[in-house]
Amino acid sequence: MRYLPLSDPDRSAMLAAVGAETIDDLFRDVPVEARLDGPVEGLPNHASELFVERQLTALARKNLVAGEAPFFLGCGAYRHHIPASVDHIIQRGEFLTAYTPYQPEIAQGTLQMMFEFQTQVARLYGCEVANASMYDGSTACWEAIGMARRITRRTKAVLSSGLHPHYVSVAETMAKFTGDCLNVALPDLGPETDAERLIAAIDSDTSCVVVQYPDILGRIADLTPIAEAAHAHGALLVAVVTEPVALGLIRSPGEMDADIVVGEGQSIGVGLQFGGPYVGLFACREKHVRQMPGRLAGETVDAEGKRGFVLTLSTREQHIRREKATSNICTSSVLCALAFSVHMSLLGEKGMRQLAALNHARACEVADRLARIPGVRLVNQSFFNEFTLELPVEARPAVRALADLGVLGGVSLGRLYPGADALQNGLVLAVTETVTDEGIEALEAGLGEVCQ
Amino acid sequence: MTVNPSGWRPTTPANEPGSADAVTGNRALMLEEPLLFEIGSTEQTGVDIAEAAQGGDRLGDLERTRPIGLAGLSEPEAVRHYTRLSRQNYAIDLGLFPLGSCTMKHNPRLNEKVARLPGFADIHPLQPVDTVQGALELIDLVGYWLTTLTGMPAVAMSPKAGAHGELCGLLCIRAALEARGDAREVVLVPESAHGTNPATAAFAGYRVESIPANADGRVDFDALKSRLGSDVAAVMITNPNTCGLFEPDMKAISDAVHAAGGFVYCDGANFNAIVGKVRPGDLGIDAMHINLHKTFSTPHGGGGPGSGPVVLSEALAPFAPLPFVEKQGDRFVLVEEETVGEHHGRSFGRMVAFHGQMGMFTRAASYMLSHGADGLRQVAEDCVLNANYILRALEDVLDAPFAKSGPCMHEAIFSDRGFGGGLATLDLAKGLIDEGFHPMTMYFPLVVHGAMLVEPTETESRASLDQFIAAMRSLAERARAGEPDLKAAPVHAPRRRLDETLAARKPILVYRDPKAAEAAE
Q1: Do residues B168 and B296 both lie within one domain?
Q2: C-alpha dihedral (A422, A424, A425, A426), degrees to nearest 10
Q3: What is the rounded CA–CA span in Å between residue B350 and residue B354?
Q4: Chain B residues within 8 A of A360 when measuring between CB atoms
Q5: Are residues A74 and A92 in the same domain?
Q6: B265 and B389 share a domain?
Q7: Which domain holds residue B431?
Q8: Fewest C-beta atoms under 10 Å: which of A96, A105, B124, B482?
Q9: Chain A contacts in chain B segment 344-403 (CB below 8 A)
Q10: Which CATH number goes with the domain that contains B391?
Q11: Along the 452 residues of chain A, how does pLDDT read in single tens digits?
Q12: B246-262 as b/e, with b when 16 or more CB fall inside 10 Å?
């Protein structure tokens, strides 16, 4: 077997060295009745690299690849071009096959990268500090609600109707067990966000208000009034960003006085990968850092006074605090954070702004073209690279019909909100720099057809 | 002039010719690297992006007015920056990485190749399910291997990492108890457990109580039995445990817990020691997470991403989280909120936005198919043999508290008993760095004083083990002799020991431009 270096003579010699006659002597603590006599039944035996690659390639071929079709899906995962050097760097064995940097003297590569990543995230979000990543945006969002509970010692969170419904579901699942009380609502297919509802719902029991920016329908609204209302009641504003490229063009949540900003970082450097692994981003005010979950890299000096980096503030974490930890999180998403950080370094300020401008311009063009299809209405007045259409027909079958035409034409609100009758004609489309003129024409033609 | 004053400079002995400081701060292949923000600029970029058409402004009057402050690099500068950083990392690709409990085995490159097939890497989680049948089949395939290898009837694939899997298991248990109207408050966790176990139990709303270990390093079964009662929701047991020992009473423990109305959660972090040899389902386990990044060789990546599917017993399966893949005829479907009522109305809900760590499933599938049932059994046997080989080669120079009671499983544990001159585990571990190895897991589990937990894995050759053993013997002798030099180790690493107290007392977590920092003060 190609991954096992021991030869049979090695095994015999080593068994003799440890004073065992057979390998099963080393498994003698396992009661005999629990030991299997031979390989587990129902599974094939070992296979060559050629065979395995062929078998898995056959499965991969059964999928319709985003890059091979006109593609317009978003809603929490976005298709952007990733420079070739990003994947090259994350495949360097020194990054790929390293562990969590518990031994900083021989892990400065990962630690310095984490410190740079934290700086990039904090600056992008307009916050003072950021951590070294979470599992993904949805779990980062829930952790932010938990952090707000710890800071305010209150348990009522008000969630915007524009928050990604999967993020809401994750929070609802967790709240069942932690006792947090969540105020949730369904979105309206209109141009306005639910800022008024949120402001009205804040009271002296509120731990936080959670607002997605841009929201699930792509709408962009000023967070400042919500921040003011929250702060007036001693509550926190948690902003959630699922499309970080937007922040190349629009104001950061931190600038609008959000206390905690979390989100999905997949858009930058990390591919679609059918939903994971992704990279959760998490930033906040410096004064709250000791309530923050997740790994943190910090600057320090070594015994000779040279600058270096270590994992720090670990007294918040499970391996020190056990049941009193701020979170049970142990693994983060460091390799995806590296991909994010490399892509972000390649973009820089200039590239990030250009990329965002291109996305927005392309989205404006497509929105206007599609809104001219008879019976189709553009819901948004404001958007970045993602907007919602109201179709004259139910969107879910329309999306399936588009797929039959070879067009991956957006996410239906019927998929995201299966029970909500008022939303069934809603279709959310994302337009990034990767769409082509031919793709737009195919979408336009296909949508015209399925809307008849 | 030194170009890089903050950087690493090797100490050249003063009596050698050419002993002046390097101009650059670098020496041969020992290359320092400044921070991105010290070398990049907001004007530089490493991408060429087409000019945007004019006229689009639907930003709701929220156009950015302030700069972000992102440093950019051209592609050659970026590749060099990260390549130089990478060289300051130890990694499995460089040598033996004996971190106990972490299972740092070789990461096969075929895994990386198949994960990057466009049919897996470039599909969106919300595409119509008819366009992703191959992806759903892949998830189903990995689920089949996991349930078959563990002898368990069901699996939840969506948890993102081991600790997330623990949470999944405990939430299933809590949902099952609530479904039968049985409010229990306590989760029992052995002293030797991973820190994630009590943290997870607390997060799931339980009070955590500790169970002591006996002198053999196993769970004290009598103490456990006497604590069981109508308030105990679950017992969380790691098997093989964190002392590297199999819990021989596991089935009896499960039976006792079940008789008292509770559930058994098994931390599967050490499943690599028994894969293909023992099926946890035969030991009465109700839930167990499997770290794909340990047993099934997906890369650790410097701290994630991981993946933590959870296998479940019949009693817990109905409560598994959404979404999951089901085969209906010759078609795979994704059961989400919409269809849950028909099939699976008692699910405790959704844990994560999409369907789990697809990129890790493809890598694990590649590993499983490569090894097959016979190869996985060999994996368990070789990792156990390697660990015992180390244990027996070191037990005369290092205190091995449980060596007398029999063989270990996949990892060997030692203590710092007998060290002289005020030396501790930390010093030996740092000495190992100077010998060209990554240190073992230190000070864990807590039940052994100055614990050193050594896990070689099955992907080390005998020659590699012999070299490690020689280094360890030398270090053990130096530690017992109280050699003060060890206090200063490492001296050959890119950095000497770092001041962690300073880092925590005055946290600097992001880069601040010196000018901005000065202006602020």
Answers
A1: yes
A2: 90
A3: 9
A4: 52, 56-59
A5: no
A6: no
A7: 375-503
A8: B482
A9: 348-360, 362, 365-366, 369-379, 381-382, 384-386, 388-389, 391-393
A10: 3.90.1150.10
A11: 999 999 999 999 999 999 999 999 999 999 999 999 999 999 999 999 999 999 999 999 999 999 999 999 999 999 999 999 999 999 999 999 999 999 999 999 999 999 999 999 999 999 999 999 999 999 999 999 999 999 999 999 999 999 999 999 999 999 988 889 999 999 999 999 999 999 999 999 999 999 999 999 999 999 999 999 999 999 999 999 999 999 999 999 999 999 999 999 999 999 999 999 999 999 999 999 999 999 999 999 999 999 999 999 987 777 777 777 777 777 789 999 999 999 999 999 999 999 999 999 999 999 999 999 999 999 999 999 999 999 999 999 999 999 999 999 999 999 999 989 999 999 999 999 999 999 999 999 999 999 98
A12: bbbbbbbbbebbbebbb
Q: Are residues B237 and B340 in the same domain?
A: yes
Same domain, A308 and A216: yes
Residue of A nearest to B379 (CA): A4
Specify the long-range contacts of residues B466-472, CB closer than 8 Å, at least 24 apart: B467/B96, B468/B96, B468/B98, B468/B390, B468/B437, B469/B389, B469/B390, B469/B393, B469/B394, B471/B432, B471/B435, B471/B436, B471/B437, B472/B390, B472/B394, B472/B397, B472/B398, B472/B432
Last residue of a domain, one of B314, B339, B365: B365
Report field, pTM of the whole predicted structure over 0.90:
yes
Per the structure, the complete domain to which residue A104 belongs is given by: 84-343
Number of domains present in the structure of chain B: 2
Q: Are residues B344 and B417 in the same domain?
A: no
Residues A127 and A237 in one domain: yes
Neighboring chain B residues of A63 at a CB cutoff of 8 Å:
119-120, 123, 131-135
In a domain, B439, yes or no: yes
B148 phi/psi in degrees, rounded to 5: -70, -45
- Please say which residue of A314, A343, A372 terminates a domain: A343
A249-268 burial, b at 16+ Cβ within 10 Å, e below that, comes to bbbbbbbbbbbbbbbbbbbb
Cβ neighbours of B268 in A, within 8 Å:
none
Residue A20 lies in a domain: no
Q: Which of A53, A73, A97 to mutate against chain B (most B CBs within 10 Å)?
A: A97
In a domain, A435, yes or no: yes
Spatial neighbors of A1 by CB under 8 A, at least 6 apart, are A46, B370, B371, B375, B378
B219 and B295 in a single domain? The answer is: yes
Residue A447 near residue A409, CB atoms below 8 Å? yes
The residue whose two tokens read 């290092």 is B398
Instruction: Provide the number of structural domains found in chain A.
Output: 2
**Could A272 and B124 be called an inter-chain contact, meaning their C-beta atoms sit closer than 8 Å?**
yes
